[in-house]
Please model this.
Amino acid sequence: MSEAGQRGSLSEVVCYAQIGIDCCNQPIIPTRAKLSMHTNRHTSTSGNSWGWVDGCSLNICWSNDGEKFNRKKAAELVALHNTTIRQEGQPNE
Model:
């Protein structure tokens, strides 16, 4: 059993479970029950939008510069995570 599983609380398990990889190949690991997605007001040097997901252990970025983890996938990941946590009865911190 994992260290998080031994602690027992679902919110603690979520804090230690990787749920994806960002555009810089960093693991996406939530540290809060509710994630939020943001867009930087300045575009990248190529003119595409980029931003970040708040509520994770690292600075998680998404980019529309042809990256695998783009705005659409970031929004889907945040929505899925937040819906799953809400359905399992965890608070929106």
In short: The first strand starts at residue 20 and ends at 21.
